[in-house]
């Protein structure tokens, strides 16, 4: 009876978490859309716009290790609710400023920094809490629903943001975001983060380790897990080389091929739809038997797609064919992103000890947040001095080779020993002479 009640509660968590994530992500993206336009209208300066991006990225990079430490040492529910309340207060503060005086860059940057900090603590802690919220058999479903809410927000927020920005004032944007944030707090407060948790209880009187010691211990734990270490290293490499896509894709379509902004929007929508449809598929299908193997070949496919982006620069195509080609490639890119990320994240959730989840996920967060901007800066420079098709093809080859080397057959067998066993069982038995 108790087990049935726990499973019912886990089902409730699945949908509560999804709705909460959808509301907070959608609100954040609509806000980001509006505030970006507002800064550009207010100042006309790309530097001011970039400064707001730095205010968003830098706190996440610097504070992720501390968020991981907190997620492993303190109440995860308290951290998530506290972070969401702090975000609501920051939005409310900016709303009051917008109603009483004109919004200043200082007020916007301060709010962006606070929202970045709260998002870091909430995101790392939620990632660490997944196995405590739902039963093991539905972790893939939970990760897919999480990705679905992000994809919905990616598809809908630019359209909603664009419509609202032309019709309502900035205070209305902030009120929408504040309402979404408050509803998210209410939903999260009804969740039991210890339902399936396996964290060790802190023994009273036991010597307490310092924050630095704890973070070092998390890193040491990661270094002792060969498969986990390789998965995170692959994730970081993919994040870095993804800069070739992020910079090159816009540069090629807008600057080189002179694609109409509306048609460029169609290609971006195809990417989000690909992610969404694949997330829906993963949320309704049974869990993958060999997740690391699936992710490996999905990254290889991503590498091929990365090189394919250069095709219209090498082969003469009509405008219509070029547009259709990029819609198809970007849709496939969206599919491959989910096929890569979901199995790896599910495997991490099941592999990482519950007492170390926060610190391990924070290492991934710190590395990703540091490498993605670095990749964009480096590739931005390279696209100015080298041929775009050369950069894409070399990045494609690098990605494929690195993944094939790191996730070589011996590593795959270590991650999935049942693969070797399956082959042995399938091999014909020697016949007596």
Automatic annotation (TrEMBL):
Specify one Pfam family: MFS_1
Query: Would you say which domain of life the source belongs to?
Result: Bacteria
For this protein, the record's InterPro entries field holds: MFS, MFS_trans_sf
Keywords, in A-Z order: Cell membrane, Membrane, Transmembrane, Transmembrane helix, Transport
Q: How does it sit in the membrane?
A: Multi-pass membrane protein
Protein name as catalogued: MFS transporter
Keyword Lyase recorded: no
Q: Which PANTHER family match?
A: MACROLIDE-EFFLUX PROTEIN, PERMEASE, MAJOR FACILITATOR SUPERFAMILY-RELATED
Q: Where in the cell is it found?
A: Cell membrane
Instruction: Report if keyword Zinc-finger is assigned.
Output: no
Which residue ranges run through the membrane?
12-40, 46-66, 78-100, 106-127, 148-166, 172-191, 230-252, 264-282, 294-313, 319-339, 360-382, 388-407
């Amino acid at each position: 009876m108790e087990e049935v009640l726990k499973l019912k509660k886990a089902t409730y968590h699945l949908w509560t978490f999804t709705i909460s994530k959808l509301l907070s992500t959608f609100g954040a993206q609509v806000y980001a859309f509006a505030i970006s336009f507002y800064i550009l209208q207010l100042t006309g300066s790309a530097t001011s716009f970039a400064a707001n991006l730095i205010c968003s990225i830098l706190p996440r990079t610097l504070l992720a290790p501390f968020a991981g430490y907190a997620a492993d040492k303190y109440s995860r529910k308290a951290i998530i609710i506290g972070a969401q309340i702090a975000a609501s207060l920051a939005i409310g503060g900016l709303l009051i400023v917008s109603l009483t005086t004109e919004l200043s860059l200082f007020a916007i940057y301060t709010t962006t920094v606070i929202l970045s900090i709260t998002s870091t603590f909430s995101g790392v802690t939620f990632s660490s809490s997944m196995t405590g919220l739902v039963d093991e058999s539905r972790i893939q479903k939970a990760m897919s629903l999480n990705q679905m809410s992000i994809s919905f927000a990616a598809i809908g927020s630019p359209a909603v943001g664009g419509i609202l920005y032309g019709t309502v004032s900035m205070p209305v944007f902030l009120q929408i975001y504040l309402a979404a944030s408050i509803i998210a707090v209410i939903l999260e407060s009804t969740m039991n983060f210890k339902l399936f948790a396996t964290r060790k209880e802190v023994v009273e009187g036991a010597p307490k380790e310092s924050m630095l010691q704890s973070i070092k211990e998390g890193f040491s734990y990661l270094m002792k897990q060969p498969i986990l270490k390789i998965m995170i290293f692959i994730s970081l490499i993919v994040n870095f080389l993804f800069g070739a896509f992020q910079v090159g894709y816009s540069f090629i379509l807008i600057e080189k091929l002179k694609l109409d902004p509306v048609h460029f929007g169609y290609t971006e929508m195809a990417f989000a739809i690909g992610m969404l449809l694949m997330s829906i598929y993963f949320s309704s299908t049974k869990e993958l038997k060999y997740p690391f193997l699936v992710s490996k070949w999905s990254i290889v496919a991503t590498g091929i797609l990365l090189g394919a982006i250069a095709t219209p620069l090498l082969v003469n195509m009509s405008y219509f064919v070029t547009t259709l080609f990029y819609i198809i490639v970007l849709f496939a890119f969206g599919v491959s992103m989910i096929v890569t990320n979901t199995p790896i994240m599910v495997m991490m959730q099941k592999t990482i000890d519950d007492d170390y989840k926060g610190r391990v996920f924070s290492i991934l967060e710190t590395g990703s947040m540091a490498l993605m901007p670095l990749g964009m800066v480096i590739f931005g420079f390279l696209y100015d001095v080298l041929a775009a098709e050369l950069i894409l093809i070399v990045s494609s080859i690098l990605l494929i080779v690195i993944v094939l080397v790191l996730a070589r057959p011996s590593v795959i067998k270590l991650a999935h020993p049942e693969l070797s066993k399956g082959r042995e069982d399938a091999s014909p038995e020697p016949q007596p002479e």
